[in-house]
Amino acid sequence: MTPTVITPSIGRSSRRSVEDGARAKISISLTGEAAMAAEAIAREHSITEGEAVRRAIAVLKFMTEEMARGTVFRMQTPDGESERLKIVFT
After folding, report:
1. Which of 38, 74, 72, 36 is nearest to 55 (CA)?
2. What is d(CA 47, CA 42) in angstroms, rounded to the nearest whole number?
3. Any idea of the CA torsion for 19, 24, 62, 56, to the nearest 10 degrees?
4. Which residues of 31-41 are buried (b: 16+ CB within 10 A; e: fewer)?
């Protein structure tokens, strides 16, 4: 079975240092698709759009760290089949 490929786009234009646990205000521009996704996630989970973005970043950080350790992610489809996810960051 061919793995499902997920290719989130990660911007690399700005780097700044923030102390662990500190809050920082960062302005970002989202594509229409990303903005609509943030709105939908916020509505579905009764959270703010900012919190939806923070949670997405936390998931991305976790997945990046796990992939660096060699972790393989799998997805179970509704029919019970297991499919390997190939996640490519561009």
Report:
1. 38
2. 5
3. 180
4. eeeeeebbeeb
Q: What gap in Å lies between CA 83 and CA 74, rounded to an integer?
A: 5
C-alpha dist (Å) from residue 24 to 15, 17, 38, 54, 73: 13, 10, 19, 12, 31
Q: How does pLDDT run across 26-44, given as a tens digit for each residue?
A: 888 999 999 999 999 999 9
Note the helical H segments in 24-75. Answer: 32-45, 49-68
The single residue listed with the structure tokens 């489809």 is 77
CA angle 52, 56, 26 (to 5 degrees): 75
pLDDT recorded at residue 17 = 67
Q: List the chain domain ranges.
A: 32-90
4 phi/psi in degrees, rounded to 5: -75, 130
Res. 80 pLDDT band, cuts 50 70 90:
very high
